[in-house]
Design brief:
By secondary structure, the chain is an all-alpha fold. The protein has seven helices and no strands. The chain has a domain of 49 residues. The chain starts with 19 loop residues before the first helix and ends with a helix.
């Protein structure tokens, strides 16, 4: 078999070139549709305004586009003295809400009945170290408790028999009594 060289031409099996007349015959015709009208009919804008003004008269609303008919004087007039603006006072005053003041006895009762403080006290008695918010809360409440106890005279009572007589002797300044020094 002899070898045949490939060519670019379509050859006898390619598409046939149609004449312009034949191409028109094979083409499908376009559907004929009615031409759409674009926009409003001519002269319609004048009719719309007339219709709108009639509608305004019927509804009682004014057209915003029409200006004011009040006359404006073209000569300068004396200016009226301006009154200072009236400062309006509020009818209600704003105040921070205050907590009800408690008597020392009531406050002492609240601290003694504080369950959270009782839990912290139990933890301290078990030699547990409090930290953070627990420690701050415990310290604040115990300090306030001591203040209230001192205010109410309920502090720790010390009997005279329990006081060391030597400490009482040393705390008293006998020099003033014996020597009469006023220094």
């Amino acid at each position: 078999m002899t070898r045949q060289k490939k060519t670019r031409s379509a050859g006898p099996n390619g598409l046939r070139h149609l004449s312009a007349e034949d191409a028109r015959k094979t083409r499908e015709p376009k559907e004929e549709t009615k031409k759409k009208g674009s926009g409003l009919k001519s002269g319609n804008r004048n009719n719309v305004v007339a219709i709108k003004t009639e509608a305004v008269k019927e509804s009682g609303k004014k057209d915003k586009r029409i200006g004011s008919k009040t006359p404006v004087s073209l000569t300068p007039q004396a200016e009226k003295p301006q009154q200072p603006p009236v400062l309006l006072q509020p009818k209600a005053s704003l105040a921070k809400a205050k907590a009800a003041e408690l008597t020392p006895q009531q406050e002492l009762a609240l601290i003694e009945n504080d369950s959270y403080l009782q839990q912290l006290l139990e933890r301290v008695e078990q030699n547990e170290v409090l930290t953070g918010k627990d420690a701050k809360y415990f310290n604040a409440k115990t300090a306030r408790l001591e203040q209230l106890m001192d205010m109410l005279g309920l502090g720790v009572d010390t009997d005279d028999a329990e006081i060391d007589p030597l400490a009482a002797f040393e705390s008293k300044d006998w020099r003033k009594d014996l020597l009469g020094d006023e220094d």
